[in-house]
Amino acid sequence: MCVVETMAAVCCVGDWLVTSVSHHLVAANISQCREPFVFDCAKAEQKPKENKTENESQGGASEEKGSDRVLAFTLSASGNYAALTDDSKRLVLFRTRPSWRCISTRWVVRRCTSLVFSWAEDELFVADKSGDVYSFSVVEPDQQGELKLGHLSMLLGITLSPDDKYIITADRDEKIRVSVRKSPYCIQAFCLGHTEFVSALCVAPEHSDWLLSGSGDGTVKLWNYESGQQLQSIDLKQLYVSHGTAIDSEKSQRFAVSRIVTTLDGRYVAVQCERFPSIQLFVLEDELEGPLTPTDNLTLPHTPWDMTFDRQGRLWVLLENKDSIFLLYTHTQEGWQCETESLDLQTVSEALHLHWDLFEDSVGLESQLQHLYKVNFDNTASYLQRKWERQQQQKNQQGGKRRAGKGPQSSGAAKKTKTESKGGTVSQHCS
């Protein structure tokens, strides 16, 4: 269960609803009224000088000071462990039971974008902006990381197959790569078909051979990741329009999927697009017509930061709103219904409301994915424009020369008169 870099993020395992915002990690207990666990990266352990020297020797940045902002965090499948990485290149490992405590702080070579625990909870895999994946031991929490594999472009997502056999990575260059975990240099398959960066990955445990992916091209795709075969593709823009949702022209051009989550049984899937006040729900079943079937579309009163399913299959949506931090949806026979009287919702909302000052700086921030789009240049139009300008310049120059040649005192006329004069004198002398 992985959360990629975002303005504010949420993840749920067991009784803990964990959020990250700015340089803080905040864990609220769903079922008990207790003070949330708050971790402040700005007050965390500083990098020792010897580690700085070692980092420089591995090609990392030297004296660059980070902002301590949380870039990504993840929870293990059982909820026993949590980890985060921040802008100061920390990798912090927590144990959550019987109570939250930090058990190690390690350092990565470059800033990370995504991280995930193995299902066996013995390793933590970290993907970074340079395209590399490192593995860190959970059993030996002070052991340094080991380089596992690399891409040629920025990594945006990482996950593992439910049997821990494959490492699945997604990058800015539209590729999804499936590598053998024990021998990462062995590539099992590529899942190719997106036309923009791949920003979300999700494997449902109960459908262990299927992978869901989301992209900046506004599509959600379903794959058999072991073979690289695309099973289904859904264009979210068309789907939203069919629901009657208005999409302005700017958003329709850049409609990036920011999050895909599933219930524990893998039956229900929720998809969120960045900075868009709506969530699309699907049912995932073994159907010949198409395993991924659209169902409800939830229109939200405020822009969502993130979302997650809890162990009961309820959908928690984190909003950019102080008075309504969370919305909670439950699936019924009539579809997905918003709960307003839930005691769990009240418990979490009250706990986080006391810490709203941590969230305020992230309200209204610009999209985190928009800078990943490739810039397209119309080379033909640019060439024709430059060609026209050159032709106009040449015409102007030629016109100037012709006008100068018509003058009585032009150098050409003077030369011609002088030559003719010389010729006449010679002729008279010869006669």
TrEMBL record:
The encoding gene: WDR4
Keywords from the named record: Nucleus, Repeat, tRNA processing, WD repeat
Pathway the protein takes part in: tRNA modification; N(7)-methylguanine-tRNA biosynthesis
Role, per record: Required for the formation of N(7)-methylguanine at position 46 (m7G46) in tRNA. In the complex, it is required to stabilize and induce conformational changes of the catalytic subunit.
Organism: Electrophorus electricus
GO BP annotations listed: tRNA (guanine-N7)-methylation
Entry keyword Nucleus: yes
Cross-referenced InterPro entries: Trm82 (IPR028884), WD40/YVTN_repeat-like_dom_sf (IPR015943), WD40_repeat_dom_sf (IPR036322), WD40_rpt (IPR001680)
PROSITE patterns: WD_REPEATS_2, WD_REPEATS_REGION
Polar residues bias: start-end ranges: 422-431
Protein name per the record: WD repeat-containing protein 4
Species classification: Eukaryota, Metazoa, Chordata, Craniata, Vertebrata
A Pfam family recorded for this sequence: WD40
GO cellular component: cytosol; nucleus; tRNA methyltransferase complex
WD repeats mapped onto the chain: 191-233
Compartments, as annotated in UniProt: Nucleus
Family: Belongs to the WD repeat TRM82 family.
HAMAP family given in the database record: TRM82
Domain of life: Eukaryota
Main location: nucleus
Region: Disordered, residue numbers: 388-431
